[in-house]
């Protein structure tokens, strides 16, 4: 399994995900933005990569890596990185602000 290729793709896509997450921080707040970072940001990163760097997929195809495999690996990396960040953020928010539930 070419781990370096997956990490290179993640480095290419994470820039677009972080830009989208920063915009979401401004619009929706920190907690919602990090949840978007874990889930919806991946789709945005893939969309922008598809629009700007479509030719680079040939590199991954030559290694036997499909778009679906790339998507799964980026999703898992984002999940592993993002979940502790969201949990720590929610714990800090509940400690300093208190109960933040809507109901």
What is the beta-strand fraction? under 5%
Question: What assembly state would you assign to the polypeptide chains in this entry?
Answer: single chain
Integer average pLDDT? 83
β-strand number? 0
Q: Biggest β-sheet, characterized?
A: none
Number of domains: 1
Number of helical elements = 5
Percentage of residues assigned to helices: over 70%
Query: Helix/strand/pairing class, anyone?
Result: mainly alpha
Shape: elongated
Rounded to an integer in angstroms, the radius of gyration calculated over CA atoms is: 16 Å
Uncertain segments of ≥5 residues (pLDDT<50)? Answer: none
Head-to-tail CA distance between termini:
47 Å
What's the SSE pattern? HHHHH
Short key terms for the protein model shown above:
single chain, 103 residues, mainly alpha, 5 helices, 82% helix, elongated
Question: Would you mind describing this structure in some detail?
Answer:
By secondary structure, the protein is mainly α. The chain has one domain. It is 82% helix and 0% strand. It is built from 5 helices and no strands. Helix 1 (3-28) packs antiparallel against helix 2 (30-38), helix 1 packs across helix 5 and helix 2 (30-38) runs antiparallel to helix 5.
């Amino acid at each position: 399994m070419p781990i370096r290729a997956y990490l290179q793709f993640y480095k290419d896509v994470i820039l677009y995900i972080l830009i989208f997450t920063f915009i979401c921080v401004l619009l929706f707040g920190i907690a919602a933005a990090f949840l978007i970072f874990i889930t919806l940001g991946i789709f945005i990163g893939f969309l922008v990569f598809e629009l700007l760097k479509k030719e680079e997929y040939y590199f991954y195809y030559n290694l036997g890596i499909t778009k679906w495999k790339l998507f799964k690996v980026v999703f898992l990396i984002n999940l592993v990185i993002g979940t502790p960040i969201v949990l720590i953020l929610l714990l800090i928010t509940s400690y300093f602000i208190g109960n933040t539930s809507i109901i």
